[in-house]
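Sync notes, pocket subgroup
Present: LS, DG
LS reminded everyone that the earlier model was apo-only. Rerun requested with 4'-deoxy-4'-aminopyridoxal-5'-phosphate included. Inputs:
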Amino acid sequence: MNQLAERLSRISEPQTIKMAKLGRELKAQGIDIVDLSIGEPDFNTPEHIREAAKQAIDEGFTHYTPVAGIADLRAAIVHKLKRDNGLEYTPDQIVVTTGAKQALANAVLALVNPGDEVIIPTPYWVTYSEQVKLCQGEVVFVPTSIENNYKITPAQLQAAITPKTKLFMFSSPCNPTGSVYAKEELAALAKVFDKHPNVFIISDEIYEYINYVGAHESIAQFGDLKNRTIVINGLSKGFAMTGWRLGYLAAPLEIAKACDKIQSQFTSATCSITQKAAVTALTGSLSSAYEMVAEFKKRREYIHEALKEIPGLKVNDPEGAFYMFPDVSAFFNKSFEGDTIKNADDLCMYLLHRAHVSTVTGSAFEQPNCIRLSYATSMDKLQAGAARMKEWLGKLQ
Ligand code: PMP
């Protein structure tokens, strides 16, 4: 349809959403699919948070709120950033958004001019590059390797920076790899940024609580980087609240104001009821979040071992989030009954149609030798998924 704006041709629909759609279609045909493609916790939102939302409805808290969020929520976020991350912000530096995705979009729209370069280490979360392309920015991918647990090195960062670099975007814990940057690793990257004072950083910390190695670290904690870092976070993953649509950003005042202005012309504030629930989530007990993470940790141990037992898979060692990102290139050019695997896309389709296991191809995340598996599903499903994968991958000759 050639009436559509040209910008549509610059972006694509996320493969993650496409795989979920395909899996649903097969399920609707009565096929028993083990869905390991999902990017959301399989837990219910904790009860005290649900109760706060019900109370907000009953009290008639159902009207427009200030675009950047209600005062008590912004205060709760300021408190959270101090408590968990040692970061000092004022409430006017916080913008509450419709999911972390909108926080990212606000920040990219606020900073990226046509032709600006944006460095994204790969594999990366699919949305970053598409938002940059919508702003006519130039995406500069920096490939990382399984040997370095998919983390960018200071030397790679240094080599990628040019006079046109405006922004660096990354997530830790990372979707799709589960990698977590340690304090020393962030400190080493911070030293590179010190030499390039015009480069901004978007630090996506949405998986902060889903971390199996200890305290979460934010790059905004290093030196004066807070003055040019936009911290992105939200409640979707840590509090099992994906459908509520609550994200936020913390930024230097000028950038926060710009994000508020952009948001005021797109969506206004996020849902008033969700905001009340979020105050309770951020100021209340974190015990249900910890319980969920303890369960993810058990599943991670299981699936990590189970995948390591499948000949041909090269398995990474994720320290956070709920994804495994094995290298599957050993299966390329192998076949079974007329199905030939040329790449990770083919392998995903083979696993979906033959083993009835839904995963996501690594090419979606700019790492074409890998696939992503989510372990945000029950232990029974993980066991069935691992067994089916072992059986069907074993047939490829
Ligand atoms: N960042 C990353 C790395 C994610 O994986 C996701 C969700 N898949 C988001 C941001 C968006 O989260 P939200 O649901 O809060 O928009």
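DG: The longest strand covers residues 165-171.
LS: The pocket of 4'-deoxy-4'-aminopyridoxal-5'-phosphate is lined by residues 39, 99-101, 125, 171, 175, 204, 206, 234, 236, 242, 247 (CB under 6 Å).
Action: DG to write up.
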